[in-house]
């Protein structure tokens, strides 16, 4: 029996506190998704991705990120990476394809997907990963921040690590359509309304500066667009003559009003379906 009121309060708080998370089984899969409420790492047995050699027109970014990932998987120094630029040009596909390629020779390499909305919980995630024998690519897709969005402060725990430092076995790869992760009008408004314009935007804009690698993705031209589709056709055994492919593909992108790797894959998916070819 507890007579001291402080002891009773302490005991009650201990009962209310959530139980510590069990150590995850990092051998359950090569990739995981981080969930909150409750915190858990869910293994993903079949990652949705394409082969690395099917990503056309991103050679320089591919080679740079691949070399960085191999260094990291081998236990050598490596940089956090921000893949930014035109939508649909294979930023997230490249991260997943490189993970698969490097994991084939470094089985201890894992990938953990973190949603932008769960950034405030990143400290708890890092505590789970810290000290594990595996090495982790922390992957945050479509990362950006809007007005009055303070989630970017949580991201600094990954990039800078605070007093504990970022775990040596964790590196962050993020994708974004925005070079500085913030809307341009938000940056301009900060500059225009602040007493010291430079200081007003420095904290927000400098977030992207904390990534050691900046890899830009630009809109593809028509030749690259057609080459992407031809690559898919060759890889999956879809037969179509060059003239028909050119005509249909150009018409497809015209109806979409854009030309990108995503549009190329969408056309190919339609083509494969008409030809009766499975692409899963």
| Average pLDDT rating | 85
Task: Using the CA coordinates, give the radius of gyration.
Answer: 23 Å
Distance between the amino and carboxyl termini:
63 Å
For the record, what CATH class of the largest domain applies? Answer: Alpha Beta
Q: Assembly type of the shown chains?
A: single chain
Structural class: alpha/beta
N-to-C series of helices and strands: HEEHEHEHEHEHHEHHH
Can you count the helices?
10
Silhouette? elongated
Most strands sheet = 7 strands, mixed
Number of structural domains: 2
What does this protein structure show overall?
- The chain has 280 residues and is α/β, with parallel strands linked by helices.
- It has two domains: 31-217, P-loop containing nucleotide triphosphate hydrolases (Rossmann fold, 3-Layer(aba) Sandwich), CATH 3.40.50; 222-275.
- The chain is built from ten helices and seven strands.
- It has helices at 5-16, 59-73, 91-103, 122-129, 151-159, 184-193, 197-209, 222-236, 242-256, 261-275; strands spanning 31-35, 40-44, 81-85, 109-113, 135-140, 170-176, 213-217.
- Strands 2-1-4-5-6-3-7 form a seven-stranded mixed sheet.
- Strand 1 and strand 2 (40-44) form a beta hairpin.
- Helix 8 packs across helix 9 (242-256).
- The radius of gyration is 23 Å and the shape is elongated.
- The mean pLDDT is 85.
What attributes characterize this protein structure?
single chain, 280 residues, alpha/beta, Rossmann fold, seven-stranded mixed β-sheet, 7 strands, elongated
